[in-house]
Amino acid sequence: MAIHRMSSSRRRLQAWLQAALLLPAFLISIFSASPALAADNLLDARAGIASFASAPLGPVAGGWRFSSLPNKTPTRFDVVEVGGERVLKVEAADSYGNLVHATRVPLDRAPSLSWRWKVGEFVRDADLRTREGDDGAAKLCVFFDLPAERLPFVERTKLALARKTTGENVPSEALCYVWDAKVARGTTLVNAFTQRMRMIVVESGPATAAGGWLAERRDLLADYRLAFGDEAQGAMPDVVAVAISADADNTHGHGLAYFSDLRLQAGRLREASNSGFVPAEGRAGNGE
After folding, report:
1. How many Cα neighbours within 13 Å face the side chain of 268?
2. Any idea which of 1-15, 122-136, 201-215, 225-239 has the lowest mean pLDDT?
3. More confident of the two residues 276 and 140
4. Between these two residues, 206 and 274, which has the higher pLDDT value?
5. Type and span of the H or E element at 11
6. One-character DSSP codes across 226-262
7. Are residues 273 and 113 in contact, defined by beta-carbon separation less than 8 angstroms?
8. Cα angle 133, 229, 175; round to 5
9. Which residue, among 139, 146, 39, 114, has the nearest Cα to 266 in the 3D structure?
10. Dist. CA 89–CA 260, nearest whole Å
11. Alpha-carbon gap, residue 31 to 169, rounded angstroms
């Protein structure tokens, strides 16, 4: 089945969009792959994330699920060959879309997330601080399953409505790593549409490394505490999914990025530091 075909779960999403007036459409769409997060479909952490290096050329399958919004042009996610290796090409053209992969890793195992990426074209006029400019060529998001009772009342009500309407266990939090054209590296932001999503700008501006590829590795426990520590109050929820995202629907622009070597690994039980930053060679030129 083609990755862009509308499934019964996506049709339920459309009903959700009509009913969940209190829940921002942006939040709904990025969590719309939530059927993949059902307990009986979760991958064991040891199974890891489906690799692009061994995937067939063309639209992505093999553990990844595409999600978007009704009446939106879908962002393209395709496995292509670049420099003799297979990587994920992500192209947004006045479009919106997410590629979501389910997993389950306890956050108290201090998991690390590593990947390589490069940006071929930033979305012109993107501005992460505004709804009108909330677009980006390259985002990698991590979903967490914080118990709803720890959320503020309004946020808890919105989440409960979403879960009741869809019948799905919609995750309560998302942390997105962003490569932005202008915002300084290390900046943390709350998404302009919803408190349920926080962002860390990992790279800023064009890369200086040969070929444009940069390698990243993040301590998810440390980053979670940085982004959601105010509401988590010491809780360490499970990681339940990762998502590659790109959009240019708000600015009606165009963006191009590539991803490779995405790995989610659990470490030993330990207390993490307060910073998830790990230096990488050839970082972008417009950093802090």
Report:
1. 2
2. 1-15
3. 140
4. 206
5. helix 8-19
6. HHHHHHHTT--PEEEEEEEEEE-TTTT-EEEEEEEEE
7. no
8. 40
9. 114
10. 9
11. 10
Q: Report which residue type is found at 73.
A: T
Predicted pLDDT of residue 165: 65
| 256-278 pLDDT per residue, tens | 999 999 999 887 655 444 444 44
Q: In the structure, what pLDDT confidence band is assigned to residue 245 with cuts at 50, 70 and 90?
A: very high
Question: What does each C-alpha distance from 135 to 126, 153, 224 come to in angstroms?
Answer: 5, 29, 22
Q: Phi, psi at residue 222, to the nearest 5°?
A: -65, -40
Report the side by side order of strands in the sheet with 58-59.
Answer: 58-59, 76-82, 85-93, 254-265, 112-121, 214-219
Let me know the angle formed at the C-alpha of 240 by 235 and 246, rounded to the nearest 5 degrees. Answer: 115
How far from 164 is each of 18, 41, 53, 159, 269, CA to CA, in Å?
13, 20, 38, 9, 34
Tens of pLDDT along 12-45?
544 444 333 334 555 555 555 544 443 333 333 4
Q: Which two tokens stand for residue 61?
A: 């399958």
Rounded to whole angstroms, the Cα distance separating 198 from 176 reads 6
Instruction: Tell if the pTM clears 0.90, that is, is over it.
Output: no
Q: Cβ(249)–Cβ(51) under 8 Å?
A: no
The Cα 30–Cα 24 span in angstroms is: 11
* Distance, CA of 178 to CA of 201 (rounded, Å): 5
Give the list of residues 6+ apart from residue 27 with CB closer than 8 angstroms, or none. Answer: 158, 162, 193, 194, 196, 197
Average pLDDT over residues 76-101: 95
Q: Which residues contact 26 (CB under 8 A, 6 or more apart)?
A: 134, 191, 193, 194, 197
